[in-house]
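Figure-free illustration: sequence to structure, shown twice.
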Amino acid sequence: MQATIESDIYIFRFMNSHRIVRDGNSRLWVIYDDEDEVTGDWYVRVAYSDNNGASWTIEEVATGSDTLWTSYAIGVDSSNTIHVIWSHTGALKYQTRTSSGAWSSVTTIYAETATYSDLAVDFSDNVHVVYLDYTTSRRVVYIKKTGGSWGSPTVLVTATVDDAISFPAIIVDSNDYPHIAYSYFDLTPGDVRNIFYIYQTAGGWQAAEQVSVDGGSPQSQPAIIIDSSGNIHVAWLGRGSPLNPTVSQYLYRKRTSGVWGTIAYITDDSGVNYGYNHGLSVTGDGELHLIFMDTTSGNLYRSVNSGSGWGSKETLISAVSTGFGATLWSNVGNGQLASNYAVWYYKTNDPLWDSIIFLSFSVFIPKIFYF
């Protein structure tokens, strides 16, 4: 099933944050941004669907007369309250919407320069947020909301001079502890880029672990999930594959009982330009799904790992335009699994305006799950 959420919008965000969730009433929620082509105003919007994505109702979260709206994410708690974050002119904002439709006032989580943020809601309805602080140096920062109060921010990683960090992504486990993946670019000397993983236990934050093997651009945009056995799964866009080492491919690695397994190459194709904004999800029985875009052809693909390795890519949608396309996060739900939903936006023939498309390719499986 494919349905258009909104047409004639301007949306172009390389992000790996949670952007689609399903609440306890089976209502689907999506967060995205848009620019009014007449007034030039910029919006952060949510859309929800009560009929499995066939039709959508749109609500505005924030608006302004500039284009500095970036880095948004969405989550849902056990009361079906929606939690959203976004950045405006650098400041990181937070807002909630109750199941009755009442929006809270806006809270500023961080007033300086924050970008590339992500959000996850745990089983106790605490809100976990990770973001990049660009105020004085590039830092990965974590902050948690317990009840009605935000705690103090914790700096997890600080880039050295001339290095860079990007694309942090967060999940929580069954004990309400956060797990974060991010990209670190060691730019001097040379250009060595890697994916790292850091997590919290009862003993505090543990040392960062390198997931990828030293490589050049991109080694970026990690997608991170956790399965029902507590295994960590990370997929990312990188280079160094056996057959096509200079072409960006999708890579994957699994962490079991504290040990990282062998890196797997989900794709290893020549002459293909795989794009950003992929999605990684897992079913209740542990089957992994990666949704990704080939920007050379504009095709949207899925690859499945049922436990014996990644299968060949399956075309979900063939190109409908020659412009940019990307998948958004397919992780859905808090404490339940809505199996394998994706949102895809694509560039139309108009050089400025896109349509945001909802794509469903699997039925809802009501199993207990965490992400």
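We now fold a second protein in the same way, so the two outputs can be compared directly.
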Amino acid sequence: MKTRPGAQRWSFASALIVSCAMAASAAVEIAGFMDYRYDDAENTEGQFQFRPGNGVELSLSSELSPHVTAQATIVSGGGGFTLGPSFVDWNIKAAGEHDVHGAMVDHSGIQAGLFDVPFGIESRYYSSVDRPTVSAPFLTARLLGGGWTDYGFHAYFSNQCGEEECPGPFTLDLYGVTGLQWNDGADAILGTLDDGLVTVPLTAFSNGRTLGGRFGFSVTDGLELGGSYARGDYHANIGGMDPGMTLTGLDVTLSHGALAVRGEYATFSGEIPAGPDREIKTWYIEATYEWTDRLTPVIRYDEIMFEFDRDGDGLRNDGLKAWLGGIKYALTDNLALRAEYQIYHYQKPGFQVSSARDHGFRASAVAEF
């Protein structure tokens, strides 16, 4: 989970609004988790030692009325505390409430505040508790800089087809936020180019707006297809111009018995006056199999590709591929161990790549409370 630089100016206001809303209700539920990890890339002392991963996440939630809930989240990590998803949720129509035979929508609502932006399906797995692996695919870990969490509004609609004449099970998410989460490809993902390519820092895009959404449709029982789009315009005044950037994506989820498969394809495109035009493409496919109630093996293939056009000199194609194999083992209902081994393959030899991106073993212990 990561907020854009500059978004912190909203943190106090968001926390104050949510806190005041929760204070109006006496019933406050507390939940959270602790995440500790081992990573070969960080093992500089030659010792198998767990360190804080995502740290400790504490969430407070309260039902202010039958249709309104508030949530505030505090995350510790990196030597300090940050504000996690904190918002007020107005559930306009709960599932199963006031059902109308053949109604188009049977569940809808609006969130306002700081939330995980529902671009694709990866936002469902930002939390260490929900993810079957230790690491996230390149879409989240590289392109979205660890996860897209931002300030704004989020309207959601769905129909789970409880009626025989239901028009079809679907979900629709629409959002407007203060920025577009992105990560500069050459610098953040593959290291520094040997020809000294200068990249534009993410902080240049702290002022702007983004509108987007996702539509998902259940083709059959266990098979869902989805599409996402987000467009951001910024007031960065780089080289006398304001850049604009676009994210598009397709996703699929398939479940059959103990087998679950999900995959996504996403592209980022943008014109940046201070640097080369660029397009980033990434996709992954991940499969899990619930072998027992406790043991779940997982495999994943991941790929990301960059295309840079330096002032019309032509495209440079560079990329990164990775295979991952791992397991998740639930010791108890509230404590799970994860272990994985990931192998990288670099498309081009012209990159200076840090040891943090070599092949390696990772493990984590996540405890819920």
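Summary for the second example: Residues 72 and 120 are 24 Å apart (CA to CA).
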